[in-house]
Known about the structure:
The chain is mostly helical. It has one domain (about 10-175): Arp2/3 complex 21 kDa subunit ARPC3, CATH 1.10.1760.20. The chain is built from 7 helices and 2 strands, in the order ββααααααα. The protein has a two-stranded antiparallel ribbon with strand order 1-2.
Amino acid sequence: xxxxxxxxxxxxxxxxxxxxxxxxxxxxxxxxxxxxxxxxxxxxxxxxxxxxxxxxxxxxxxxxxxxxxxxxxxxxxxxxxxxxxxxxxxxxxxxxxxxxxxxxxxxxxxxxxxxxxxxxxxxxxxxxxxxxxxxxxxxxxxxxxxxxxxxxxxxxxxxxxxxxxxxxxxxxxxxxx
Length: 177
């Protein structure tokens, strides 16, 4: 079964197939960062945990996106100790915002996937900035910290906006048929 609006389509976040698929997206949100760390690749440039979260929102709506977004950093921390405890609440809020908003904008407001992903990324980054200002001690100054934390991921964010919506569209089409 699918939920259709005038412009957008998502797979409902209900039933065992949706739960298993979201568990797969959650698993990829754990494996991708682990592989990135093992390969000593630039995590802040690639944002490996963010991709499956936004994809979950675009495919399974706000419920699926919120679930994967909130759980990914928590499960990762439980299993690996990463992200660090000081940044964990900030990342939970950021990723939950990504998944929730990508799904909500796609499912309820009928925005196309590119716009939904872009607005979700902006809102997630704003939540990161707001909570980081309150929670993360940084001696170099707030704006220096934000530049170091957020600017490297701009290219990954733009790539997510370009690549994830067509992937989500294909996923939804195959889930429906």
